[in-house]
Input
Amino acid sequence: MPGVRAGEIELDYERSGSGPPLLLIMGMSGTALHWGEPFLELLRRDFEVITYDHRGVGASSPLTGGVTIAQLAQDASALLSALELDSAHVLGISMGGMIAQELALEHPEQVRTLTLGCTYCGGPDSTQGPPWVLEQLTEGMMSGDLDRVMRTTWEVNVSESLAGDADAYARFLAIAQRRAVAVPVIMAQLQACFAHDTSDRLHELTMPTLVIHGTDDLMLPVENGRQIARLIAGSRLEIFDGVGHLFFWERPERSAELLRSHAAVPA
Output
């Protein structure tokens, strides 16, 4: 992917497809590759898709010290400006959804429509995942056993039915092998997520907003999606029954269809 100067750092990004611009903001420990080709290929039919790697990931500028969700949102804003885009449709998932919330709050003029997937807004009414999920992920990363890390990461991010799909896991593993994210970067991102709280500001959002969440999400339970939809007046909530955290892996066609409809792109 090419690099572009975005504020004080450089971000590795890719533009593909044709149509109105759609900025995809990836979650914690993820890379631009983790969107998966099936989902990206569907989006490219209707959008100019912009993917990028966060600071500290891939060929983007290294991460030195900690980071905040607000800083990562500023990176996204600076990327749009560097690409000479006044605005874009925005999809953020998980940590990327937190970044998208901050982007929409601080730079609403840059966000045509907002889609928040498998994410949360923080605050006292948000719902944390089961403690064992974070414990298993942390123990895996600290063990240095890559096979254990990848298998655990896969199993807690998808539904039980997809977890046993050998072909899907092979695709997930191949992505991680192509572009790994360093443990210190993941831990810094995790701390940023813990500190995230937009719960008392989401009512300020006025752009069309779509919220997507799976009922079997172990990372960020579905109650978080319902909470966000309640806090954003006029937002639309789509619940995927039996689907885990990576809903766009499990339901790529339906996810792409929802984005096209939300952005009012002609079929």
